[in-house]
DNA sequence: CCCATCTGTTGCAATATATGCAACGGTCAT
DNA sequence: ATGACCGTTGCATATATTGCAACAGATGGG
């Protein structure tokens, strides 16, 4: 909507893939070098872009700081964190908290397994939206039309043979999840990893976040993991209660 | 340098302090509501800003993704990480990796203590630059004039009675650190926490990062922590060698 | 050693682009 | 029902952005 800002912001994802020099930036934007220079300077002043010694540009420090502040101002996260820690202590497995935003689902908190098994996930990273248990819960709660629209425009990568294959299957799965009030991912993202998840609800009953417990087959079987379901649900409910109760509407400014 | 972009980017730190509605944003920028609207829309299209259900704006998801990609594209971090993990396993203490950028020093990686003691630090967060051991190492390596200029414009908050009080003391400390090739922070940031740090150097000998081991008094005394110095230095040197050796200059594009 | 080349930088004129205004539409509370 | 409030849109104006061309500094080859 604003050409100048649009161009400037297009630089960021470009630099996210690695440092680039002025010419490359100008080329990618399809603008004159001098224009790119001025945009980069403005980004630089705001700390979003950093100029390394070889004159090339890379993403800057303020970006981290902003992301930090943003994630910390999500109050669900603060409320939920101690519960995640406790669940992790009780089960020993990796615990995730995720929210839905726009057409993505992303992890906003994580407590790592005590077992020396690494899962590839990271706070701030988008979730495999078509298969993750937390994603199913968050999307299942969307109003019907939105759900259909979103399901239609998603890609359905077959991470494993058990991945959800297409929009129709996904919508069926969401309907089932919506009914039962919890969700699983049994090897749909990574062959040997299973998850069980439960929703966190706001005062109005809408799903505001979802939490999951994940563990690889080598540690516990899917059936064993499912025995944790009541505990996961109780934890999610505890978070829901606390979140609904407090909700301090900060309106100072 | 570019007014439009400048205004648009000024919105980000504003929203970092919590959600705001259109009027508040326009007010803070000193522009007409319609102008603010269009800027916000552009930010929104790029995913940097998210509009929550109550119509207010908050920082958006792509910001996390960008910060992630940025931090992951730092190859020092990738090389160093396994070394940090090992050092953590050997000592049991919290291990940090930090780099210098612009007039900040920031943590780019961290492996938490196995002891149940929490330190307040976070990947991406700026370091207490006047007292942290890693900061001393990174700044000590700057060319003389830059070092003086930076020291002069810093603030010297007295976190504790042992904090570095002013620019003169700081420069003396940096000179000492430069000589000895390692640094400490003995209760200069938090009364009961000590750190020892060692530099990671590039092929040209310049300090490109610094790593530290931190532990509270209640776990080990400062003297005991200092006995780890040789181990910390060996680890840092190992990272330096690996970093200097490989340095894959990616020039594909 | 000098010249050619490449990248980043600045001043300037032209015009495309962002801006503020005013009017509209929706929502909520009175 | 009515008024106030907030977000939204079209439009004319003028301002801020753009590309150009010329410059500067570094790099490398002849």
Walk me through the topology.
Two copies of one chain form a homodimer.
Chain A: H1 3-16, H2 22-29, H3 33-45, E1 49-51, E2 57-59, H4 61-72, H5 75-91, E3 94-101, E4 104-111, H6 133-140, H7 144-153, H8 167-180, E5 183-186, E6 193-201, E7 207-216, H9 222-226, H10 229-246
Antiparallel strand pairs in A: 1-2, 3-4, 3-7, 5-6, 6-7
The structure holds a DNA duplex (30 and 30 nucleotides).
Keywords (chains A, B): DNA-binding, Transcription, Transcription regulation
Pfam family, one (chains A, B): HTH_IclR
Protein name (chains A, B): IclR family transcriptional regulator
Brief account:
2 copies of one chain form a homodimer. Chain A is α+β, with helices and mostly antiparallel strands.
Within the largest sheet of chain A, what's the order of strands?
4-3-7-6-5
Count of helix runs of chain A: 10
The average pLDDT of chain A is 86
Strand content of chain A: 15-25%
Number of strands of chain A: 7
Helix content of chain A: 40-55%
Largest sheet of chain A: 5 strands, antiparallel
Name the biggest interface: A-B, 51 and 53 residues
Assembly type: homodimer
């Amino acid at each position: 909507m604003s050409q100048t800002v649009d161009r400037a912001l297009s630089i960021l994802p470009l630099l996210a893939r690695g440092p680039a020099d002025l010419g490359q930036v100008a080329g990618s934007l399809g603008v004159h070098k001098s224009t790119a220079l001025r945009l980069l300077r403005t980004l630089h002043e705001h700390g979003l872009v950093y100029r390394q010694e070889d004159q090339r540009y890379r993403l800057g420090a303020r970006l981290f700081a902003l992301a930090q502040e943003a994630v910390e101002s999500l109050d669900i996260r603060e409320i939920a964190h101690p519960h995640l820690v406790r669940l992790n202590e009780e089960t020993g497995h990796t615990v995730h908290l995720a929210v839905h935003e726009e057409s993505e689902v992303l992890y906003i908190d994580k407590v790592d397994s005590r077992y020396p098994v690494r899962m590839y996930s990271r706070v701030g990273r988008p979730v495999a939206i078509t298969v993750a248990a937390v994603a199913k819960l968050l999307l299942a709660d969307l109003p019907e039309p939105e759900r259909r629209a979103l399901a239609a425009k998603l890609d359905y990568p077959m991470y494993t043979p058990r991945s959800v294959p297409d929009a129709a299957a996904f919508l069926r799965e969401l309907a089932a999840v919506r009914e039962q009030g919890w969700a699983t991912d049994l090897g749909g993202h990574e062959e040997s990893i299973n998850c069980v998840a439960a929703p966190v609800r706001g005062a109005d009953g809408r799903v505001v976040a979802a939490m999951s417990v994940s563990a690889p087959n080598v540690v516990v079987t899917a059936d064993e993991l499912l025995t944790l379901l009541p505990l996961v649900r109780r934890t999610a409910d505890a978070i829901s209660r606390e979140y609904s109760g407090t909700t301090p509407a900060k309106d100072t400014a």
